[in-house]
Amino acid sequence: MDIGVNNFLVIHLTLIPYLAAAKELKTKPTQHSVKQLLEAGIQPDILVCRTEHHLPTEVKKKLALFCNVQLNCVIEAMDAETIYDVPLLMKKEKLDERVMTKLKLSSRVNTDLEQWKEFLGRLKNPTQEVTIGLIGKYVSLPDAYKSIIEAFIHAGAATECKVNLRLISSEELNEENISKKLEELDGILVAPGFGERGFEGKIQTVKHAREQQIPFFGICLGMQVAVIEAARHLAGLEGASSTEMHPDTPHPVIGLMEDQKQVVNLGGTMRLGSYICELKKGTKAYAAYGKGKVSERHRHRYELNNDYLETLEQAGLHASGINPDTGLVEVIELKEHPWFVGTQFHPEYKSTVLTLILYLYASFVQR
Amino acid sequence: MASSSTKYIFITGGVTSSLGKGIIAASLAKLLQARGLTVTIQKFDPYLNIDPGTLNPYEHGECYVTEDGAETDLDLGHYERFLDTPTSQSNNVTTGRIYNNVITKERKGEYLGKTVQVIPHITDEIKRNFLKLGEDGKFDIVITEIGGCVGDIESLPFIEAVRQVKWTSG
Predict the structure, then answer these.
(1) CA–CA distance, A123 with A88 (Å, rounded to integer)
(2) What does CATH list as the number for A130-366?
(3) In chain A, where does the domain assigned CATH 3.40.50.880 lie?
(4) H-helix or E-strand spanning residue A231
(5) Cβ–Cβ of A2/B169 closer than 8 Å?
(6) Among B4, B6, B11, B12, which would you mutate to test the A interface (most chain A Cβ atoms within 10 Å of its Cβ)?
(7) Which of A259, A261, B62, B90 could form a disulfide with A146 if both were Cys (CB 3.0 to 4.6 A apart)?
């Protein structure tokens, strides 16, 4: 069960704070944290030091001496402009070489980072610029939307477009202030979420995007809100809502999935992970993916209530993506609109640096 | 048993949290992948929730969902975005999951009359999970990010398991 000394390496990530008043980089916190590791019986092989300033050789020597590591194993990790610069910075600092040597590994091929560099080149040299509003209730902690934010970075690189993302709290939005708060946006994304807080603000956001013909992208709850808005204002179903927010709504256009009704525990019981979705030809979703069958990841308990699908279709809201096994509506769009798409799935989870065709996010940014 | 060719890299953090262990782990993995090696990254989180699915996004950021439907730490998102290879439930283990496994085994009678303790039962379960992704020989390198900070009471069993996994040669 144990792996042996030559197959084992410990890297310790630490901070070298800079005291502006003394104009000094301080190594003491690192010495102490390495000491704690040593007390636990672990000698780190490599130190990676986060710092705002370059580490002079004397500082590196001091760290090596007091932390018991080789001088060339003290690696500087300067703050980077984007997280996607970090692999190249670590390459420059030879972190990979140190690891290869210590683990007695040899390269199978010459390091190939061409695609990565191409991505960075496109990211840093945009030819156009758009401003997109992300409307959600967790905006005070941007990490709550990490994958969406990163997907816009990938989509921006793919389309050579700088995406300025403006995070806007849905709780602050109402009928009176909506045009002011959402002015100058080239696109509007209504974020995933749960519960009633900020819900009506999201309805107003969808209404604004629909009426003003602003490109709109709704994800998960964002898609459900778009369905509710269309039900209320296009299909004339007064009081239409989701049974999640309003259990007694006269028109439950969004309802709990059948197999969720018996669920008692809340942990790990949503509809989770990858499912197939079939896209209809001639729709914006089909155009974005360029194919009719896609697989995307999910995290939800509620779905579009198919009893209302015909009414919604007649009102102009179309189901452009359907799960072939259950008939669950995965994608909705408005035809009479430049770009209005809602997805029950989360396309951001599968967005990576190397998927240069980023489907929906890129298609949205290009609008 | 661990495959003899798989190498293990452990990443610990000191001084403060939020230093970006996830980004450093993903960057190192990217560089090793660019040299033709197969690499995966896993994260061990020192909290008692079985997974982050029930955590408030305000507290823990986004809950990242993998292909196989695991609700995981947002660092797994960085791993996938950098490496362009999918992760799974096995790539994110919490203290809660470790204890849950051990207690389930205890109820099944797998420890037969023994007093179940942090050492060796919890640490053995942690070690078993450290090595799991390397077992089928699919990866040349498994990078393990230990969440939290060295010196935290919560991460002590993880740190002890890292110490042990190196020795008692196999």
Answers:
(1) 15
(2) 3.40.50.880
(3) 130-366
(4) helix A221-233
(5) yes
(6) B12
(7) B62
Smallest CA-to-CA distance from A8 within B44, B76, B161 is with: B161
Structural tokens at position A180: 């002011």
How close does chain A come to B116, measured CA to CA in Å? Answer: 19
Top residue of A13, A42, A154 to mutate, by most chain B CBs within 10 Å, is: A13
If contacts are CB pairs under 8 Å, which of residues 307-336 in chain A contact chain B? none
| B4, B23, B31, B155, best to mutate vs chain A, most A CBs in 10 Å | B31
Total beta-carbon pairs less than 8 A apart between chain A and chain B: 242
* Spatial separation of the C-alpha atoms in residues A288 and A320, rounded to whole Å: 12
CB contact under 8 A, B71 and A299: yes
Of B19, B62, B151, the CB nearest to A50: B19
Going by C-alpha positions, the residue among A93, A99, A96 that lies closest to residue A110 is: A96
In this predicted structure, the answer to whether residue B116 has a pLDDT above a threshold of 90 is yes
Got the DSSP string for A267-307?
Answer: TT-SEEEEEEEEEPTTSHHHHHHTSSEEEEEEEESEEE-GG
Catalytic residues of A: 220, 346, 348
Task: Establish if A354 touches chain B: CB-CB under 8 angstroms.
Answer: yes
A26 has a chain B CB within 8 A of its CB: no
Q: Identify the H or E element spanning A98.
A: helix A95-102
Is A5-104 in CATH node 3.40.30.10?
A: no
CB contact under 8 A, A96 and B164: no
Burial of B106 (0-12, 13-18, 19+ CB in 10 A): middle
Q: Where in chain A is the domain with CATH 3.40.50.300?
A: 5-104
> Which residue, among A237, A250, A209, has the nearest Cα to A333 in the 3D structure?
A209
In tens digits, chain A (367 residues) has pLDDT values of 556 678 899 999 999 999 999 999 999 999 999 999 999 999 999 999 999 999 999 999 999 999 999 999 999 999 999 999 999 999 999 999 999 999 999 877 888 899 999 999 999 999 999 999 999 999 989 999 999 999 999 999 988 999 999 999 999 989 889 999 988 899 999 999 988 888 999 999 999 999 999 999 999 999 999 999 999 999 999 999 999 999 999 999 999 998 898 988 888 899 999 999 999 999 999 998 989 999 999 999 999 999 999 999 999 999 999 999 999 999 999 988 999 999 999 999 998 887 654 567 767 776 6
B contacts of A11 (beta carbons < 8 Å) = 9-12, 24, 28
d(Cα A361, Cα A289) in Å, to the nearest integer?
Answer: 10
